[in-house]
Design goal:
Order of helices and strands: EEHHHHH
CATH superfamily: Winged helix-like DNA-binding domain superfamily/Winged helix DNA-binding domain
Number of helices: 5
Number of domains: 1
Strand order of the largest sheet: 1-2
Number of strands: 2
Helix content: 55-70%
Structural class: mainly alpha
Shape: elongated
Largest sheet: 2 strands, antiparallel
CATH class: Mainly Alpha
Radius of gyration: 21 Å
Strand content: 5-15%
Length: 117
């Protein structure tokens, strides 16, 4: 099997492990930035095999310059999406923030009321 046969090259900015919805960026982020072993990585993803993890790492090592750019673009795109979500949160996110604030206020009132002795 050729190394490229492990992947679906859907678009220049979207390379998936063949037969899964897992992008190579997810595997490589764990490997490069979180220093996780292939065995640790495969335990985090229910739809991939150890062979696929090793193939992804090998693909990265053989194509380090282009894959590094791919990952850098993915990280920047992810950061931009996160910033956009922070500026324009969904109704669900607004509700979760409201619930968290209410919970923290309730906890603060309890802690300052003297009943926690």
């Amino acid at each position: 099997m050729q190394l490229e046969e492990y992947f679906d090259f859907q678009r220049p900015d979207d390379i998936r492990i063949r037969g899964t919805r897992v992008g190579i960026e997810n595997i490589l982020y764990e490997y490069i930035y979180r220093s996780r072993t292939p065995e640790e990585i495969v335990n985090s993803f229910s739809t991939i095999t150890l062979e696929q993890v090793y193939a992804t790492i090998l693909y990265y090592l053989y194509n380090q310059e282009s894959v590094s750019k791919y990952i850098a673009n993915w990280l920047e795109s992810s950061h931009q999406r996160w910033k956009a979500q922070q500026r324009n949160p969904s109704p669900t996110m607004l509700r979760l923030r409201q619930l968290r604030a209410e919970q923290q206020a309730k906890k603060f009132r309890f802690e300052t009321s003297g009943y926690n002795c």
